[in-house]
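#dry-run=false #mode=assembly
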Amino acid sequence: MSFVYEKLMGGKKGLIGFIILAALILVIFPLFLDSFRLNLVGKYLTYAFAAVSLVLLWGYGGILSLGQGIFFGLGGYAMAMFLKLEASSPENTAIQSTPGIPDFMDWNQITELPWFWEPFTSFTFTVLAVLIIPAAFAYLIGAAMFKRRVGGVYFAIITQVIAVILTVLIVGQQGLTGGINGITDLRTLNGWDITSDSAKNIFYFVNCILLLAVILASRVILTSKFGRILLAVRDKEDRVRFSGYDVANFKIFVFCFAAMISAIGGAMFTLQVGFMSPSFVGIVPSIEMVIFAAVGGRMSLIGAVYGTLLINFGKTTFSESFPEMWLFLIGGLFIAVVMLFPNGLAGLWDDYGHHITHKLRFITKGVSKLIPQSMLRKVEDTRS
Amino acid sequence: MRKTSTSRLPSIMRRRFVKGLMALPAAILLSNMSLSVSAAEVNTTGLAVTDDTVTVGILHSLTGTMAISETGAQEAEKLAIKQINDMGGILGRQIEIIQEDGASDWPTFAEKSKKLLVKDKVAAVFGAWTSASRKAVLPVFEKENGLLYYPTFYEGLEQSKNVIYTGQEATQQILDGLNWVAKEKEAKTFYLIGSDYIWPRTSMKIARKHIENVLGGKVVGEEYKPLGNTQFGSVINKIRLKKPDVIYAAVVGGSNVAWFKQLKAAGITSKKQTLLTISVTEDEVLGIGGENLEGFYSIMKYFQSQDNENNKAFVKAFKEMWGEDSVIGDVTQAAYLGPWLWKAAVERAGSFDVDKVVAESEKGDIELTTAPEGYVKLHKNHHLWSKARVGQWKKDGQATVVYTSELIEPDPFPAGYQ
Amino acid sequence: MDGYTSSELVSIFAMQGFAGISLFSVLLLMALGLAIIFGQMGVINMAHGEFMAVGAYTTYFMATLTETYFPAFMPYYFVLAIVVAFFVSGLLGYLAEFALIRHLYKRPLDTLLATWGLSLIMQQSFRSLFGAREVSPTLPEWLLGSYQPTEMIDIPLNGMFVLGLTTIVTLGVYYLMFKSRWGLRVRATTQNRVMSDAVGINTKKVDRYTFALGCGIAGIAGAAFTTIASTGPTTGTLYIVDTFMVVVFGGAASLFGTIASAFSIAQAQSILEFFISGSMAKVYTLLALVLILMFKPEGLFASKVRR
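#status=ok
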């Protein structure tokens, strides 16, 4: 029980934060938002996977990846390939010169399914692929870089270049990948209409539960010995190395895990939105994902979710009324977050939240007496 | 082709158009006529229609890389809607616009189109520009049974119940231009170059088949550069080595400017080399600069310099609304047709219901004699019959139309070119 | 390669060689400013592309002014425009350093985010000021067309111009960094800030001017690029990855490395482009760079600075 309380929930504060988040996305949003807005939130929450992965990677590991879009995209594409194959049954594609293959292949004179598409007819394989392919790719990159002690800025720039390479490849090999249009027109999952409202609602809840599960899993990792070593690596890599740890392996592991999380987000995106496009793989979305994490607070898993929601809500609302203001605003926000609130929303809550609770306590003075002072002090301690 | 009966309404439209916006009595008559029909009757599917208004959506990129291209299209759509409103609207209802920004981002296009259809219940949407944005919104329109008027010339290979394509599909743009250049310039060898995405690739595929199988010519090179590429030095040298009779180009966006500037700097000008492009309209010339294009050819269905009464009125009205400096490209004109085609179909159907409007559109005899490009007719395959024109660019950024084809039947799934 | 006369092949090789050199000068000019900012100061300036765009827009603005008010001055304005572009971008860089960068020297990854925010603001400012469309300044006649040493060889004049300009700027940077007192201070600050402070160097001032200089050179690059391509609000983002690649590949703190890296990338790309169709040339070039960087993480010519 204490394991669940301390490790999984992160103590009292973590538990409260987790419950509030769960209540917000599982109860309050579905109750108060219509299905259109709820579907939008569902889409935003898929980005939150990438933001959470960046908290692990960047906030705790000190590894800034400007290529989380790569993994988001790989996960999304894996799912999209499965759905596309299902949508391209010989009956549905009878007008093509080669029925039974995706329409964009037919337009590019491809007459049989490429070998790497074949396994994606299996749903089990696809689910495994969503998890394993991005992780394996991350392992390749990570092993090559971290073993050779490429880090910091160089790592950020190299991940960015890899994102560019992948985008150019996807766009250039359009016979195999759908090119710049992406893989579109995805309608059914094992015969189940994924465009219907009921399906979207189900995906929304699946998405939320997966996200919460990912947050819990990340907490387990971070509160374990591994998490503490990761922090130590971030702060004084050499000392950890001199203490006899193989620093590279820790970094590789967290990079792979982060890739896997982002990929789940990508796959959920494909399911909810009905297409996948190379515009998620490039530099701009990858940097945006970093911003989600930064705004939420780079050290806060839950903050990353709020950061994602806040930015995307802002983007949608502002771009409806003042598309021009939006870029000024978001640009200013980036700068403000870096300069003034390096710990993001979570930091703000830590800095000013207690003023609010203090005031509340002042109002309900009698009630607050019920909370033992020692417990409060303990919470403060864990924060620093 | 013109034998099919011209409906009464388009001819009213035409007269009004030519005379300007003065014939108020006709408009009042028209609106009185239709006001008697209640909203419930013309709208059985819960669209945003009241007794005196109907709401439509405009969905283009106002920000991001595509804003450059899409500005003209949305301006033309607003102009057409304003003119229709000044005439008394559609079925006695004034058109109201909800505009959304696609932000050059395909998922945003999907999100916004869903908002327009589900939240705003718009009766029709005029929008999308790139194929990628159209592919992104297509499932939304099919699922929610919306109606999209799509203005851009594109690669074909698509025909959706919920989309009316007011630009030309690939064969309409490509074949006649190639025939012309083969005949006029006695061209035998072609060098194909385009940006690397689906529209140039599909267009080049069709061009290659036509050159090899119909014209008996030869493709001596085919090249695709990544979008946004600004270095053409090596390609230009390759072209020089192959000495093609014609360079056939479909380079888009910022690359386009770099491509023509570097061609000129490399000494490849219209004096020595015939160049035919399918991706340069008046809009692009503004960025490229007329001096870099002088003498080269574009194949389009519309040029701003076209000399006819419809076009003169259109150019005049456009400049009055959007400023003297504005230029009008092919897509801008095609976008302008959207609201008018919709109006014609709605009035025939006597209803805003998407199914009824589509059914009327699919009869294949809605025509616009008032189109700035001259005359267009909606084919039952949702595309327009239109003419192909070859324009030769001048230093001032305008083109001289040197060739006009017959009216070409749209064929989005061309046999023998797949 | 049969069917071609030897003189044709020679001229193609000559022109292809020039295409490579021309790309080299473009890459080098882009990278010089960043090499100073990133190499000397360790600041990841994601807005570097936008500072280039500032230079390009300045040139466009100057061209429009000249065309309207002093048409007779048209043949010469371009040289002046380059100088103005240097100062405008440099001034903006100075301000950016004052307002943003100086607070972030201890957090290099954060400069990346802050400058990305800055780049978004700059992009939207371009859009508000100059419109969403791409613009091109009217170029003086002497920059258009080509030079023909023989019947079959055309050497683009704008390419030669950029090459010349790059040479001048590179020599200037070399002199400033390695031969002047000021450069000595910059290098001292890079190597040991505390010691430099102790011996009386005003390191804050050095930082500010170094950053401004880097941005000013970006402005020159932007001005030069108007002869090759167009300028739009998002032009800067097109160049940023390539620019970083050149600097990182060369080894961050080495001027010679930057030159060598720009040269090898340019030659690889332009030769590949000649033999491979499509966008794969770009993929192969970048892939090769990533692979080499994995084996030589510090770049081709790493400076032997103790960190």
